[in-house]
From TrEMBL:
It comes from Rhizobium rhododendri. InterPro entries: UCP037205. Keywords: Plasmid. This is DUF2256 domain-containing protein. It holds the Pfam family DUF2256.
Amino acid sequence: MPKMKKKADLPTKICASCGLPFTWRKKWAASWSDVKFCSERCRRTRSDTKPTPVS
């Protein structure tokens, strides 16, 4: 049986909505490079508007 990774060794990212770190989950294995949000709630409440720079 192959050795399992420790949870501390899993990759992490920063959520684009709330700014908190989150770790890799098995359900994201196929699309980890595309994952930007830590939860469905953060994905739904993301900020779609970007601040406009003041000239």
